[in-house]
Amino acid sequence: MAAAFIHSAALALVVAGAACLYVASPRQLLTRARGRRPGLFAAAFLLAAWMVWRIRLEASTAFFTAVAALMPLLIAWSSLVGLKGRK
Fold first, then answer.
1. To 5 degrees, how large is the angle CA 67–CA 18–CA 8?
2. Which residues have a Cβ under 8 Å from the Cβ of 3 and sit 6 or more positions away?
3. What pTM did the predictor assign?
4. Which residues neighbour 80 within 8 Å (Cβ) at sequence distance 6 or greater?
5. What three-state secondary structure class fits 2?
């Protein structure tokens, strides 16, 4: 039970970090957020996800798990916003 909670919490933090990274990009179409704040939140969420995964995994395994979870989410955010704009 505790392992499932840890993995779910870390994955939720990665999803939040991916959303913040998308909002921080200069040519995104979702919001008009500017400045450093979304990028700092993205770094904080991703660091927190790594630290949560560090509870159950080795440091390098936790890092690569966070990166592997982040990559498809970055593609998904762009695709979902592109589909939203098509309507």
1. 70
2. 56
3. 0.85
4. none
5. helix
User: Which runs of consecutive H residues, i.e. helices, occur in the chain?
Assistant: 2-24, 37-56, 59-86
Q: Helix crossing, 59-86 with 37-56: angle to 10°?
A: 140
Q: How many CB atoms lie within 10 A of CB 7?
A: 17
Reference 63, options 14, 1, 29; nearest CA is 14
Please check whether residue 53 is in contact with residue 66, taking contact to mean a CB–CB distance below 8 angstroms.
yes
Q: Please say whether the beta carbons of 11 and 66 come within 8 A.
A: no
pLDDT tens digit sequence for 4-59: 999 999 999 999 999 898 888 877 766 776 667 888 999 999 999 999 999 999 99
- How far apart are alpha carbons 87 and 82 in whole angstroms? 9
Amino acid at 29: L
CA distance 64 to 36: 25
Q: Tokens at residue 5, please?
A: 């909670």
